[in-house]
Amino acid sequence: MTALTLSTAAVPGLRADAIVIGVAKDSASKSGGPVVAPGAEAVDQAYDGGLAGVLETLGASGAEGEVTKLPAPAGFKAPLVVAVGLGAQPEKDAGYDTEALRKAAGVAARTLAGVKKAAFALPLTDAADAGAVAEGVLLGAYSFDAYKERGKDAKNGKAPLAEAALLGGKPRDKAYKAAVERAVAVAEELNRARDLVNTPPNDLNPEAFAAVAQAAAKEHGIKVQVLDEKALTKGGYGGILGVGAGSASGPRLVKLSYTSSKAKKHLALVGKGITYDSGGISLKPAGHNETMKCDMSGAAAVFAAVVAAARLGLEVNITGWLALAENMPSGSATRPGDVLRMYSGKTVEVLNTDAEGRLVLADALWAASQEKPDAIVDVATLTGAMMLALGSRTFGVMANDDAFRSAVHEAAEEVGEPAWPMPLPEHLRKGMDSATADIANMGERMGGGLVAGLFLREFVGEGITWAHLDIAGPAFNEGGPFGYTPKGGTGSAVRTLVRVAELAASGDLG
């Protein structure tokens, strides 16, 4: 993990391998040329106030994600200046958006792989900006190299940025220190979620995931309970058992309990944890199996959020439920047409074994409901339909309460996770009627993501406020890295869940 420090050192004399500065697009100019952002005054002065012109000559425009490298001015201890685009220049007297700072820091950190120390001289107007830059650095520097020779990127041989100094960060200011400490806790746990998502399924089965959760719980004072096959059978968890029936690796239900003596609210988080999804008997077609190690991203997000909340000492009680199973075809696997009796007592006709996430979530949602929390939020890579609706970078938010859905959506946008509120149309419920069981696990094809949400709603206890996040799109990035988002596991929804927990702790959650 990249080491972070707050520094008030003067840029010219700072010993580092690179200095990162911000560049914006000039909103006042018709040409839209680059403008040097605050924080880089010393660098601009060393260029006799002509740094913007130099950057423009080198082709820089200040566009978001753009990186321009140039030699540092004479007399600087650092040999390199890295100018990173911030996007449009804000209006006069307005600061830069925290997400723009987070993305710029992430791009710079990723670009500086192989560098020992970099100084970040990005525009900081308050502690929130410092936290955003810190978060961007730590998320952008992420690298999953556990399976590569010598623990580094085998392609270019570069290790992640080792150290980052945040200039202008007021190291003795309590607000700045708190913002950076929060960023470190959240980013470290988010990166742990990324590690879990990226781990091959032959090494991360339900039992192994449960062991990781147990170790982290012990480290951070979180109570943990793990239900294995025998306990699940005794308890009547037909959904989780049905999904895991075809695998040699048995399913698990992990309960993580973080409590605060000052808590006035209880928040339950439920995560889908299919450590590998072949589709079961309803086998996925060729080309759709290769990334299915990511189907436990919801459980990874819940796990990371609970641990982050414990590290931050949030004044809210949080129970995390990880519904873990491997969905495989075999002679013992659940078949299309089988009927499962769920933990709630309801029966479900399984029409498609590849609609398995809603089955494990249903059991976990009912288990969470028995504790009568103030609210439940579930997270899942649930439907391809949500990707068709919202693309690969935005997750959908559904809920049984409009105000709560809005609050969760706003929390996601606040922390920089693109999300969109989605409806739960009542007319779609009829499509899941079954002549054999209480409900079928499939309904109308059109609006499939909404149908899945309606199915889950059936297993939320009466009177409990609930939201469902379908992160099928943003959970796993199959394209190239962008901003602070790497290729592979992204840790989607971790920051949203932490923010929701903070709002619950403060009494500001709708």
Write the layout of secondary structure elements.
Layout: E1 3-7, E2 18-25, E3 34-36, H1 41-46, H2 51-57, E4 67-71, E5 80-88, H3 98-111, E6 117-121, H4 127-140, E7 163-167, H5 174-198, H6 206-220, E8 223-227, H7 229-235, H8 238-244, E9 252-258, E10 266-277, H9 297-312, E11 317-327, E12 339-341, E13 347-349, H10 357-369, E14 375-380, H11 384-390, E15 395-399, H12 402-415, E16 419-421, E17 439-440, H13 448-457, E18 465-470, E19 476-477, E20 488-489, H14 494-506
Parallel strand pairs: 1-7, 2-5, 2-6, 6-7, 10-11, 10-14, 13-17, 14-18, 15-16
Antiparallel strand pairs: 2-3, 4-5, 8-9, 9-11, 12-13, 15-18, 19-20
Helix pairs in contact: 3-4, 4-5, 5-9, 6-9, 8-10, 9-14, 12-14
What does this structure look like?
The protein has 14 helices and 20 strands. Helix 3 packs parallel to helix 4, helix 4 runs parallel beside helix 5 and helix 6 runs parallel beside helix 9. With 510 residues, it is of the alpha/beta class. A hairpin with a 5-residue loop joins strand 12 and strand 13. The longest helix is centred in the middle third of the chain and has 25 residues. The strands form 4 sheets. An 8-stranded mixed beta sheet has the order 8-9-11-10-14-18-15-16, with helices on both faces. Strands 1, 2, 3, 4, 5, 6 and 7 form a 7-stranded mixed beta sheet that branches. Strands 12-13-17 form a 3-stranded mixed beta sheet. The model has no long low-confidence stretch (mean pLDDT 95). It is elongated. The protein is 33% helix and 21% strand.
